[in-house]
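Thread amino acids onto this structure.
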């Protein structure tokens, strides 16, 4: 029996004016295998929510592999085929068919926590602008694939469902790893929340600590109120938000 256990929290918030069913940020959680993922479907892409759901929910089912660029490419290729096969019986307008022919796109970040080895650690893979942030004693130890708030832009390289685009895109995959200690927190955040959180690290530690406190306490209504206030102030863009907070504790 492992001497470690995980305290996991999750939070999803759609854009203002949109319902939760329209949210294109999707969370995947498998605490048993220690796998967690967020995928953020590109709004302009065809069936982006389905692609994001497939990436996040199916990646966490994998027992091993898909944590290197070499393993990720064939996994994404297979997932892309499954997605596009699901469109085969749809009756689409010419415009929708043109979009479908281009495939779908999503940012992706996934992490595997290994708590059974002598030295507990995490391994992660990401493509796009959804991020992993590893914190210890309130300090950020690692952030990937983006570590600076000014590095976010409107044209990130995303995971494509279309096979013809996958090999070139997946050459931009970021992988990383880190050691785990008691009390460490690993955050997975979609792009708007990632940029906001990294900016808070530089400018407003009190808001960052309050966000973490509310999230840890599962006070999701207050987390939503915090984000609404930040949207109104212009400190975070009006975009879908997804967050997974994983705290590692020694039993």
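Threaded sequence (251 positions):
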């Amino acid at each position: 029996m492992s001497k470690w256990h995980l305290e996991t929290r999750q939070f999803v918030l759609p854009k203002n004016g949109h319902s939760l069913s329209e949210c294109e940020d999707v969370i995947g959680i498998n605490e048993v295998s220690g796998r967690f993922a967020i995928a953020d479907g590109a709004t302009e892409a065809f069936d982006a929510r389905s692609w994001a759901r497939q990436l996040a929910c199916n990646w966490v089912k994998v027992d091993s592999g898909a944590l290197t660029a070499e393993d990720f490419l064939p996994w994404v290729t297979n997932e892309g085929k499954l997605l596009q096969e699901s469109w085969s019986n749809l009756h689409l307008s010419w415009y929708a068919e043109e979009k479908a022919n281009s495939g779908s796109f999503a940012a992706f970040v996934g992490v595997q926590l290994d708590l059974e080895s002598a030295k507990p650690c995490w391994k992660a893979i990401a493509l796009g602008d959804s991020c992993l942030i590893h914190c210890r004693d309130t300090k950020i130890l690692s952030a990937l694939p983006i570590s600076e708030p000014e590095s976010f832009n409107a044209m990130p390289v995303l995971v494509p469902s279309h096979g013809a685009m996958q090999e070139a895109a997946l050459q931009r995959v970021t992988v990383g790893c880190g050691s785990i200690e008691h009390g460490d927190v690993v955050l997975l955040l979609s792009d708007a929340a990632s940029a906001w959180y990294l900016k808070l690290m530089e400018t407003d530690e009190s808001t960052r600590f309050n966000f973490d406190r509310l999230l840890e306490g599962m006070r999701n209504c207050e987390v939503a109120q915090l984000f609404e206030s930040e949207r109104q102030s212009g400190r975070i863009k009006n975009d879908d938000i997804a967050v997974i907070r994983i705290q590692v504790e020694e039993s």
